[in-house]
TrEMBL record:
One of its GO terms (molecular function) is FMN adenylyltransferase activity. This is Riboflavin biosynthesis protein. It is an enzyme of class 2 (transferase). Pathway: Cofactor biosynthesis; FMN biosynthesis; FMN from riboflavin (ATP route): step 1/1; Cofactor biosynthesis; FAD biosynthesis; FAD from FMN: step 1/1. The keyword Transcription regulation does not apply. Pfam families: FAD_syn (PF06574), Flavokinase (PF01687). The gene is ribF. GO terms for biological process: FAD biosynthetic process; FMN biosynthetic process; riboflavin biosynthetic process. Residues 184-308 form the Riboflavin kinase domain.
Length: 308
């Protein structure tokens, strides 16, 4: 997917080609987002347009409320997931104070005339313009007056009539309900980071770990032990990961410590991706290294049973 700044688009856009644009934040690119993005691709084919997505940076919640550990996907991860659906163009727009104050009507005019947008795909709960005063139905109304096609995608529901949303995915991850979150995301929630030098306690216990800090922008899973899959260089391995503060040894910072099954490689300074699959148990403080080792062996056996 080609990424272009909004103010540079006109220089690149081929003559007589318009854009069909996906609108939204798309954090996590969950199954409802995917339906919307696929609608964009289909409409782009129908109207001979370029399928695109508007990428706002930073996320409004981070811009106005300075939220930490909020995102399900970094911009890089989001772009990768969206491009896999077939969207060809990402229009990057800085979400600054000036843009946040744009009226709904001016936003629609900006889409139509500045970006050469033929039509848009939005979710049923989409809001836009100053303080989110514009709704999806407003977008359709304003669009009719200027020739902007609007496709509104209805909600997607999972078990118990639950509406899929990024907020609910965040809540599930923070509550340790990782399997529910993954069902909505259609892929395992993951974090990436560079393996840092630890204190060696895991190795001394017979469980050498690859330790990474959880990126400040990403949601922190509930503290505890998980079955995970680890991707590094050209390899993929299963393992168990403790998310927490290492309470047995009075740790302070939240880190992800991953014991990778049957791995003898030195991973220091390598970037790894840790994908979360199942919550095994909550984090707890043990009174001795021996009792911790005993529990880790139980965790390991249980994790392997989940894979069998």
């Amino acid at each position: 997917m080609r990424i272009m700044k909004a103010n540079e688009l006109q220089k690149w856009l081929p003559q007589n080609r318009n854009i069909w644009l996906s609108l939204g934040n798309f954090d996590g690119v969950h199954i409802a987002h995917q339906k919307l993005l696929k609608d964009t691709v289909l409409n782009a084919e129908k109207y001979n347009c370029i399928p695109g997505v508007l990428l706002l940076e930073p996320h409004p919640e981070i811009k106005f409320f300075n939220k930490k550990n909020f995102l399900l996907t970094t911009m890089e991860e989001k772009v990768q997931k969206i491009s896999e659906i077939g969207v060809e163009l990402g229009i990057l727009k800085v979400f600054d104070n000036e843009f946040a104050k744009i009226t709904p009507q001016k936003f629609v005019s900006w889409l139509k005339h500045d970006l050469q947008v033929k039509g848009v795909s939005v979710g049923f709960d989409y809001s836009f313009g100053y303080r989110g005063l514009g709704s999806s139905s407003d977008l359709k109304y304003f669009g009719e007056s200027c020739g902007l096609e609007v496709s509104i995608i209805e909600s997607i529901k999972v078990e118990n009539n639950t509406v899929v949303s990024s907020n609910l995915c965040r809540t599930y991850i923070e509550e340790g309900k990782i399997e529910k979150a993954n069902k909505m995301l259609s892929s395992p929630y993951s974090i990436r980071g560079q393996v840092m030098k630890g204190d060696g306690r895991g190795r001394n216990l017979g469980f050498p770990t690859a330790n990474i800090e959880i990126p400040v922008e990403k949601v922190i899973p509930k503290k505890g032990v998980y079955l995970v899959r680890v991707n590094f260089e050209d390899a993929t391995s299963w393992g168990i990961c403790n998310v927490g503060n290492k309470p047995t040894f009075d740790g302070k910072n939240v880190v992800a410590e991953t014991y990778i099954f049957d791995c003898q490689r030195d991973l220091y300074n390598l970037e790894i991706e840790v994908e979360f699959f199942n919550f095994i148990r909550e984090e707890k403080k043990f009174h001795s290294a021996q009792s911790l080792t005993h529990q880790l062996n139980k965790d390991l056996n249980y994790a392997r049973s989940l894979l069998s």
